[in-house]
């Protein structure tokens, strides 16, 4: 008899000499090996992928450093609280040390913050950490078991890759902890065995990242249990509060809140973190990739009006970056100037044609007066490659000058009353990139406010603008590859502003009497007394002359100097460099992503349209031959039952008769051959078909397309049109 055949059914295992797997070895292997890309080598070896990887790695590393610096202060305070309470809570009786971390409403980013805090505790070996989710703590028994299991289980310990084989063998021989053993008694014995003697009492940190989602009664009993054990176990509770401290006070009554020693910690607000990310990373002149005004506004609106998730914003920006570079090797030129010069030589004819198809390339060709040069630019790849370095240099300088002038302009108009153009740099970036800033009514309002400022206020404001721009040139522009050329152009403009600002400081407020006396005469006659006017026409002329005289009397030396410097700012900075994307130099599309339609279609889902497409034409997603339709209105028996029921309900009105619906469903499923072989009476329904119909109708009701009618029991009400 074959050894794998038995009277009873069973499974036969062949070890083939295999031994028990080492739990530490796979972790080492995973850490040492790099994760392979999902893309094939034919894509990863292309220049555009290399440019994308380089750009994203630089931006991502900058973002990580910024976020670590932003959260460092709060994490350090929280670390000090945990380590400080570790030595005090053993003698505090039944008072549980509790930290309330106000994280804000950006729920997708909360777990990342607590993960960073947990890693830091593990790195410093300061405490054992347990993170409890509300979904795992529906009952008090489940909450206690999850806490004990996570505190004792070996997976909660930090992995030390430098341990020897002896330690690995000990970890391998350790038995798996069962859920039935997860009790407070077992936790006491485990803590006594591992932290017995001396002052090496490690704190037991319990983190509840979604405090508001916990059941109130379960949470209250859980806190009372922890506080009762504080005399023997050094528990420290950390609450992640997404709303406000009123949620803690309303959830915990007095008999529970009196058992905790609460301390509140405040994390950085999500809008503040976004502004830092935009100002220091995405709007930094260090990176040559830019978002158009509409794409930039789209991503910020998703953040401000949907989720408040900085991680989601970063992923949206990464998607824009991928869409930009994956358009072809021509976009590999979106890199530093020296690397772009090297990659120009690697461009093929298809890449050159991609460059010629850019929208800004046509105006560049039209401004060429020589026909031979036009033909060479359009047909000769080598000739165009010789022109590309200068075109790319003009684009890079344009965006660097744009960023410098944006810094000046933000300081100039960012703190005006009511902030007509916006208070933040990102708002001014969008306004300047979308359309000409000088044509906007808010710009004229800002210029009017600047002209109404007093002498001291205007001089101080313009001094801050110049100082801030010079500091930006020194810290951000000078280290760049083309920073010297940009700095020379910008410093010359700032020097001219300094000279005019000096004239404004020295200007007086006295009226120019000579100009007033010369303008007070009209046709050689002085202004007459209004009491001596004989007619209405003469009165009108005298009033008009007096209005001109009053206007001229208000003009002083300071006013003329002020108008002169405002005109210089408008012409040399605003109109010259804060130009919209349509007026940017040729080939600016290589550096700017503006395909907002693709981003909107892929980032913001349309669930109703997707459901309609899936139910109306299942072949669109399933790609199976049995569901392939010649026409959209076609019905076949091979389609899923839900699709058949959905397409039948589209043919009905507001009220759907369930019996007629069932008959139509049966007629679709039963083919002609089946009807001839298994002819059944009209009023008798196959139970299998009826069961399939009932399940499909229930699924359609679950999706929200229909609901059962209360007035007519044999009818369903259609909810969509």
TrEMBL record:
<dbReference type="GO" id="GO:0031261">
    <property type="term" value="C:DNA replication preinitiation complex"/>
</dbReference>
<dbReference type="InterPro" id="IPR045663">
    <property type="entry name" value="ORC3_ins"/>
</dbReference>
<keyword id="KW-0597">Phosphoprotein</keyword>
<comment type="subunit">
    <text>Component of ORC, a complex composed of at least 6 subunits: ORC1, ORC2, ORC3, ORC4, ORC5 and ORC6. ORC is regulated in a cell-cycle dependent manner. It is sequentially assembled at the exit from anaphase of mitosis and disassembled as cells enter S phase.</text>
</comment>
<dbReference type="GO" id="GO:1903688">
    <property type="term" value="P:positive regulation of border follicle cell migration"/>
</dbReference>
<keyword id="KW-0235">DNA replication</keyword>
<dbReference type="InterPro" id="IPR045667">
    <property type="entry name" value="ORC3_N"/>
</dbReference>
<dbReference type="InterPro" id="IPR020795">
    <property type="entry name" value="ORC3"/>
</dbReference>
<dbReference type="GO" id="GO:0003688">
    <property type="term" value="F:DNA replication origin binding"/>
</dbReference>
<dbReference type="Pfam" id="PF18137">
    <property type="entry name" value="WHD_ORC"/>
</dbReference>
<comment type="similarity">
    <text>Belongs to the ORC3 family.</text>
</comment>
<feature type="compositionally biased region" description="Basic residues">
    <location>
        <begin position="21"/>
        <end position="31"/>
    </location>
</feature>
<feature type="domain" description="Origin recognition complex subunit 3 insertion">
    <location>
        <begin position="344"/>
        <end position="595"/>
    </location>
</feature>
<dbReference type="GO" id="GO:0043021">
    <property type="term" value="F:ribonucleoprotein complex binding"/>
</dbReference>
<feature type="region of interest" description="Disordered">
    <location>
        <begin position="18"/>
        <end position="38"/>
    </location>
</feature>
<dbReference type="InterPro" id="IPR040855">
    <property type="entry name" value="ORC_WH_C"/>
</dbReference>
<dbReference type="GO" id="GO:0005656">
    <property type="term" value="C:nuclear pre-replicative complex"/>
</dbReference>
<feature type="domain" description="Origin recognition complex subunit 3 winged helix C-terminal">
    <location>
        <begin position="608"/>
        <end position="721"/>
    </location>
</feature>
<keyword id="KW-0238">DNA-binding</keyword>
<feature type="domain" description="Origin recognition complex subunit 3 N-terminal">
    <location>
        <begin position="3"/>
        <end position="333"/>
    </location>
</feature>
<keyword id="KW-0539">Nucleus</keyword>
<dbReference type="GO" id="GO:0006270">
    <property type="term" value="P:DNA replication initiation"/>
</dbReference>
<dbReference type="GO" id="GO:0005643">
    <property type="term" value="C:nuclear pore"/>
</dbReference>
<dbReference type="Pfam" id="PF19675">
    <property type="entry name" value="ORC3_ins"/>
</dbReference>
<protein>
    <recommendedName>
        <fullName>Origin recognition complex subunit 3</fullName>
    </recommendedName>
</protein>
<dbReference type="Pfam" id="PF07034">
    <property type="entry name" value="ORC3_N"/>
</dbReference>
<dbReference type="GO" id="GO:0005664">
    <property type="term" value="C:nuclear origin of replication recognition complex"/>
</dbReference>
<comment type="function">
    <text>Component of the origin recognition complex (ORC) that binds origins of replication. DNA-binding is ATP-dependent. The specific DNA sequences that define origins of replication have not been identified yet. ORC is required to assemble the pre-replication complex necessary to initiate DNA replication. Binds histone H3 and H4 trimethylation marks H3K9me3, H3K27me3 and H4K20me3.</text>
</comment>
């Amino acid at each position: 008899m074959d050894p794998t055949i038995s009277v009873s059914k069973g499974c036969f295992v062949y070890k083939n000499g295999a031994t028990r797997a080492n739990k530490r070895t796979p972790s080492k292997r995973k850490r040492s090996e790099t994760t392979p890309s999902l893309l094939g080598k034919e894509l990863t070896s292309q220049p555009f992928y290399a440019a994308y990887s380089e750009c994203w790695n630089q931006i991502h590393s900058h973002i990580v450093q910024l976020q670590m610096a932003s959260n460092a202060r709060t994490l350090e305070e929280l670390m000090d609280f945990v380590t400080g309470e570790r030595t005090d809570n053993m003698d505090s009786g039944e008072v549980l040390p509790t930290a309330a971390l106000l994280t804000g409403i950006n729920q997708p980013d909360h777990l990342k913050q607590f993960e960073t805090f947990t890693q830091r505790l593990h790195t410093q070996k300061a405490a054992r950490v347990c993170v409890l989710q509300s979904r795992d703590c529906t009952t008090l028994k489940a909450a206690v078991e999850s806490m004990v299991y996570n505190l004792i289980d070996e997976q909660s310990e930090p992995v030390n890759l430098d341990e020897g084989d002896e330690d690995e063998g000990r970890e391998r021989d350790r038995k798996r902890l069962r859920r039935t053993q997860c009790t407070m008694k077992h936790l006491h014995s485990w803590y006594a065995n591992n932290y017995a003697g001396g002052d090496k009492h490690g704190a037991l940190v319990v983190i509840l990242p979604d405090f508001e989602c916990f059941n109130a009664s379960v949470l209250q009993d859980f806190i009372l249990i922890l506080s009762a054990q504080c005399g023997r176990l050094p528990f420290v509770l950390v609450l992640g509060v997404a709303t406000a401290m009123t949620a803690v006070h309303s959830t915990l009554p007095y008999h529970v809140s009196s058992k905790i020693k609460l301390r509140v910690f405040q994390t950085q607000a999500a809008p503040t973190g976004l502004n830092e990310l935009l100002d220091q990373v995405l709007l930094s002149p260090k990176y040559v990739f830019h978002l158009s005004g509409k794409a930039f506004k789209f991503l910020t609106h998703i953040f401000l009006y949907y989720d408040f998730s900085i991680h989601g914003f970063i992923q949206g920006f990464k998607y824009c970056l991928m869409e930009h570079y994956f358009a072809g090797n021509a976009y590999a030129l979106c890199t530093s100037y020296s690397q772009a010069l090297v990659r120009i030589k690697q461009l093929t004819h298809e890449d050159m044609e991609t460059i010629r198809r850019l929208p800004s390339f046509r105006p560049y060709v039209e401004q060429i007066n020589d026909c031979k040069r036009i033909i060479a630019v359009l047909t000769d790849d080598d000739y165009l490659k010789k022109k590309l370095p200068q075109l790319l240099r003009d684009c890079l300088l344009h965006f660097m000058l744009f960023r410098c002038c944006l810094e000046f302009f933000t300081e100039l108009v960012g703190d005006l009353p009511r902030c007509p153009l916006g208070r933040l740099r990102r708002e001014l970036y969008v306004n300047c990139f979308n359309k000409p800033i000088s044509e906007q009514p808010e710009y004229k309002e800002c210029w009017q406010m600047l002209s109404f400022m007093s002498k001291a206020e205007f001089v101080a404001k313009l001094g801050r603008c110049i100082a801030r721009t010079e500091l930006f040139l020194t810290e951000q522009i000078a280290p760049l590859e083309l920073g010297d050329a940009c700095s020379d152009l910008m410093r010359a403009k700032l020097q001219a502003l300094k000279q005019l600002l000096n004239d404004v400081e020295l200007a007086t407020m006295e009226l120019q009497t000579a100009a007033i006396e010369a303008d007070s005469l009209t046709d050689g006659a002085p202004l007459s007394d209004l009491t001596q006017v004989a007619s209405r026409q003469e009165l009108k002329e005298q009033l008009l002359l007096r209005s001109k005289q009053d206007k001229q009397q208000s003009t002083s030396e300071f006013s003329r100097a002020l108008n002169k410097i405002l005109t210089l700012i408008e012409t040399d900075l605003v109109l010259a460099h804060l130009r919209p994307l349509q007026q940017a130099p040729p080939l600016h599309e290589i550096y700017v992503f503006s395909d907002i339609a693709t981003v909107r279609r892929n980032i913001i889902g349309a669930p109703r349209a997707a459901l309609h497409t899936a139910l109306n034409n299942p072949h669109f997603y399933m790609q199976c031959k049995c569901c392939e339709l010649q026409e959209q209105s076609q019905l076949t028996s091979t389609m899923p039952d839900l699709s058949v029921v959905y397409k039948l309900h589209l043919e009905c009105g507001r009220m759907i008769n369930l019996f007629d619906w069932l008959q139509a469903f049966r007629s679709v499923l039963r083919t002609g051959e089946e009807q001839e072989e298994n002819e059944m009476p009209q009023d008798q329904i196959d139970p299998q078909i009826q069961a399939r119909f009932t399940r499909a109708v229930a699924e359609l009701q679950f999706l929200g397309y229909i609901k059962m009618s209360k007035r007519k029991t044999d009818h369903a009400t259609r909810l969509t049109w």
